[in-house]
């Protein structure tokens, strides 16, 4: 098969699925936006994958590029790129043209307007929708896609990369009392809730727990200095894997997180977790009380309570949570993701 992805910002987990496709002899063509400066991943593209820079093509040239590729299926990122929509309109009705999106349905005015625009903007371009999970499926239904034309599982972590480290927690004799945050230092990630919540708990009831944070962003220079908080900067996936060996519980306090592939990654790696109710991926990879705790979005006291609960657990209880996370994390992987593409998602 010739598979064409019209993508916005690439991430390393996406390439794990691409590698599965090329390993099975399929030709993968990827049009991508420039690399995000706040997530400067270094990509290793497999043989059999061809990459095109979106800013090298205008709308007409992009359609001509797609025609030269002769794709068997097109998978395109939402509706933000008008050139991508033009390509899908050209091929709609001849091959599956699949819209990917990770927006959750909130019923905002903008989303209500998109519902009205969908018959003219989306349906002439897309035959199917491929979404990460249930929160996005609701929105796709609101946009008028038929239930049988909506499929879940658009995001998959690089499970193989993370799963092998689960034994660092599930078989640990002395469970590591270290929380770990992985993500950007931006307002939407809720670090302005996490830092004071952690510091207040240390002042109220000093304990052995530390907080390690991996990432960078516009708020990095405003990071608090505290003896039990480590700021590690941006880490490439292999560097991150080494850091994770020393930590025990994942925390993601995002106030806005449509999905959050990092939740899948940390589940596969066997991390008990604390997540806000805004995080889409928690609907699949966090089961309350079994492998972690949810807290109410933007509620610092709720976050403190979740942290207290985790910090009160014994080594045995933490190991049991780690094992449950791991089982949830390995329940979906890049091989399954590639299988959906090979079946042309909608067929």
Task: Give a description of the structure.
With 347 residues, this protein is of the alpha/beta class. The chain has two domains: 164 residues, Glycogen Phosphorylase B (Rossmann fold); 171 residues, Glycogen Phosphorylase B (Rossmann fold). The protein is 39% helix and 16% strand. It is built from 14 helices and 13 strands. The strands form two sheets. Strands 3-2-1-4-5-6-7 form a seven-stranded parallel beta sheet, sandwiched between helices. A six-stranded parallel beta sheet has the order 10-9-8-11-12-13, with helices on both faces. Helix 8 links the parallel strand 8 and strand 9. Helix 1 packs across helix 14. The longest helix has 15 residues. It is globular, with a radius of gyration of 21 Å. The relative contact order is 0.13. One of its GO terms (molecular function) is glycosyltransferase activity. This is Glycosyltransferase involved in cell wall biosynthesis.
User: Strands across the major sheet, in which order?
Assistant: 3-2-1-4-5-6-7
**Fraction of residues in helix:** 25-40%
Cα separation of the termini = 14 Å
Give the ordered list of helices and strands: EHEEHEHEHEHEHHEHEEHEHEHEHHH
The biggest beta sheet reads:
7 strands, parallel
């Amino acid at each position: 098969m010739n598979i064409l992805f019209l993508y916005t910002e690439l991430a390393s987990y996406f390439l794990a699925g691409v590698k599965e496709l090329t390993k099975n002899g399929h030709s993968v063509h990827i049009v991508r936006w420039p690399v995000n400066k706040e997530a400067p991943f270094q990509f290793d593209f497999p043989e059999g994958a061809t990459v095109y820079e979106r800013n090298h093509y205008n709308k007409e040239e992009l359609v001509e590029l797609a025609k030269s590729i002769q794709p068997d299926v097109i998978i395109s990122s939402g509706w933000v790129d008008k050139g991508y929509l033009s390509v899908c309109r050209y091929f709609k009705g001849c091959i599956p043209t699949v819209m990917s999106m990770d927006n959750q349905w909130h019923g905002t005015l903008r989303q209500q307007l998109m519902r009205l625009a969908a018959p003219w903007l989306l349906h002439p371009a897309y035959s199917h929708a491929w979404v990460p999970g249930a929160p996005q499926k609701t929105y796709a239904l609101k946009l008028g896609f038929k239930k049988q034309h909506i499929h879940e599982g658009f995001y998959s972590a690089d499970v193989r990369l993370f799963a092998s480290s689960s034994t660092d927690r599930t078989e640990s004799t002395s469970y590591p009392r270290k929380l770990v945050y992985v993500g950007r230092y931006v307002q939407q990630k809720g670090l302005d809730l996490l830092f004071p919540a952690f510091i207040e708990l240390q002042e109220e009831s000093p304990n052995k727990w530390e907080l390690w944070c991996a990432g960078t962003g516009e708020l990095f220079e405003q990071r608090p200095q505290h003896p039990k908080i480590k700021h590690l900067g941006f880490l490439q996936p292999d560097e991150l894997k080494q850091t994770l060996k020393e930590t025990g519980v994942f925390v993601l306090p995002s106030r806005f997180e449509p999905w959050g592939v990092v939740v899948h990654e940390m589940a596969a790696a066997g991390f008990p977790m604390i997540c806000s109710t805004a995080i889409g991926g928690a609907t699949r990879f966090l089961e309350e009380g079994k492998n972690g705790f949810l807290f109410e979005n933007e509620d610092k006291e709720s976050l403190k309570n979740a942290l207290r609960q985790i910090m009160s657990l014994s080594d045995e209880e933490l190991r049991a949570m780690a094992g449950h996370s791991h089982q949830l994390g390995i329940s979906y992987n890049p091989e399954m993701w590639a299988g959906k593409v090979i079946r042309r998602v909608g067929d």
